[in-house]
Specification:
With about 375 residues, the protein is an alpha+beta fold. The protein folds into 2 domains: about 200 residues, Nucleotide cyclase, GGDEF domain (Alpha-Beta Plaits, 2-Layer Sandwich), CATH 3.30.70; about 150 residues, Alpha-D-Glucose-1,6-Bisphosphate, Chain A, domain 4 (2-Layer Sandwich), CATH 3.30.530.20. The chain is about 35% helix and about 35% strand. The strands form 2 sheets. Strands 1, 2, 3, 4, 5, 6, 7 and 8 form an 8-stranded mixed β-sheet that branches. A hairpin with a 2-residue loop joins strand 14 and strand 15.
């Protein structure tokens, strides 16, 4: 039966130049490592369909829990991890073979579409069929690099922008069009991933640390980190943690929450503004507020724990005297008792939401190591 959802191809570029008949072992090893990384970063509710040579094809059902901004951040975090791995490979090799010298030419592109498809199970793979599946694959052969100069990018179709609620965020992307004889014109919105790398690679994180920490609580949730991240940043769920009547975002950047944005917390007639000082998707974030003249840091970390997640809530305070620090620490004991009850309420609220959705994705989406090995072997010329 046909269903609708998100279609995503993550494709390693510069690969043809990278493959050399006489240096297959080094090329095979590097490609396998990079493919494993892309698989690991294909997070729920995305489900791996199959490996396609130097690309990973994944999808997410329309019933899955995936917010628009989270999708963008998922691709950004994948690219950052890919670039860091690539930079590490380049720095750590002393080999001068053509394959190792060509590592610097590898990069990554993402093609994102939203449409209908049917699923056919083949061993550990899920083969997707349909016109929209064909379209997203055809989009891998495009003129984006020639027309925009982007060496690494995420390209979103109009359908994916509309269905994922990315209209405001797309305003920061570059408009691009591809034309196919049988399909006609396809409108794309393209994000330059090199800009993401330059902006994020040297970013300094601000979190509650041991030297300024007033206390820490930890709570287990039976849901994966990528799902918990979406819950803890959503104002309607964050209001449960803070005990506020409601919360909302303010000062979004191109439609996105992040460093520099504010959480507005309503308590009766009063509104409390909490600036976001740190924002690391799928890992944690930090907000700040002023209490008794002291700047408090509230950090929530998302830590994988088996099949679920530990949320670590830490409170720190900045730049005060040791004496005042001790006084404030004594005063916060009751605060942590209160927060513990609020996180218990959050667990109940999330459990209820998951139950009401009735479509929480728990499908095992890992592809075996042997499947990666076979894909790499099949993709290289034989005759060694």
């Amino acid at each position: 039966m046909a269903q609708t959802g998100l279609l995503l191809i993550t494709d390693i570029t510069g690969y043809t130049k990278y493959v050399h008949q006489t240096e297959l072992e080094h090329a095979k090893s590097s490609l396998a490592d990079l493919l494993h990384l892309l698989i690991d970063y294909t997070r729920l509710p995305l489900i791996l369909s199959k490996l396609e040579g130097d690309a990973v094809f994944a999808y997410a059902s329309s019933e899955g829990f995936l917010q628009g901004q989270t999708l963008v951040e998922m691709l950004e975090s994948t690219y950052l991890a890919f670039r860091k791995a690539l930079e590490l490979m380049i720095r750590n090799t002393t080999c001068t073979c053509a394959a190792c010298r060509s590592l610097k030419d590898l990069d990554l592109k993402f093609l994102v579409h939203y449409g209908s498809f049917t699923i056919q199970k083949l061993n550990e793979y899920r083969e997707l069929l349909g016109n929209d599946v064909n379209l997203v694959h055809r989009l891998t052969k495009n003129h984006i690099k020639e027309q925009t100069g982007f060496g690494a990018y995420a390209a979103y179709t109009e359908a994916s922008i509309e269905k994922m609620g990315l209209r405001e965020i797309s305003g920061s992307m570059v408009s691009h069009r591809e034309t196919f004889a049988d399909v006609g014109e396809v409108h794309l919105y393209v994000q330059n991933m090199h800009d993401v790398w330059e902006r994020r690679v040297n970013e300094v994180r601000i979190t509650a640390q041991k030297n300024n920490m007033m206390g820490q609580l930890e709570f287990y949730f039976p849901y994966p980190p990528e799902v918990m991240w979406q819950y803890i940043i959503a104002p309607e769920f964050r209001s449960v943690i803070n005990g506020s009547e409601y919360q909302e975002f303010k000062d979004l950047s191109a439609g996105r929450a992040g460093i520099g944005s504010l959480y507005v917390c309503a308590h009766g007639k009063n509104q409390i503004l909490q600036p976001i000082l740190d924002w690391e998707p799928f890992e944690g974030y930090t907000t700040s507020d002023l209490i008794m003249g002291a700047q408090y840091l509230h950090t929530i970390q998302v830590v994988p724990a088996g099949d679920g997640t530990n949320l670590k809530y830490s409170v720190g305070v900045l730049e005060i005297s040791p004496a005042k620090f001790l006084i404030l620490k004594l005063m916060t004991r009751g605060f942590f008792v209160y927060k513990k009850s609020m996180f218990a309420k959050l667990r109940q609220r999330i459990d209820q939401d998951v139950f009401e959705r009735g479509a929480f994705v728990t499908i095992e989406s890992r592809i075996s190591t042997q499947a990666v090995t076979d894909t790499v072997a099949n993709h290289f010329p034989t005759g060694e």
